[in-house]
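DM from R.C. (forwarded with permission)

"hey, sorry to bug you on a friday — could you get me a structure for this? deadline for the figure draft is monday and I only need the backbone to look sensible"
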Amino acid sequence: MEVNEFGFYRGFDPEDGISPELDALIVSLGRIQKEMDARPAIINQKEVKKLMLTYEFMKRIIKSIEGVEVFFGFNTSFSLSGHVSVVAERLEFLRPEWFMKAYKLVGNVDVYPKTDGTVCLDFSFNNLATIIRE
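My reply, with the result:
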């Protein structure tokens, strides 16, 4: 059989037989998430403090740089996590040691280009709340 440029055999249709199972998986993941969001949870103060400290660090070390946005939020897709984001045309830190302190507080850091020509630096925080087990 002939192989295309992606390594698949010609005539292979990735949609054949996958859609119903994929749709069922997506629906079940949505149901699980909805059930998790409905359960009572306790706020993890230590993790929330880390998020707020990172937010404060980022605001202060880029304070005098024009055109930079710093904001925090809670992820809508998974309510137990949140993020601090820095969006700018160029990332430049006035106090690199504060950046490293913030970096050590987080679970994950991502840097990626955006379609509007800016760069986004995301600090992700997990476990902002703990679900109470019955």
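R.C.: lifesaver. The CA atoms of residues 61 and 108 lie 20 Å apart.
me: no worries. The radius of gyration is 21 Å.
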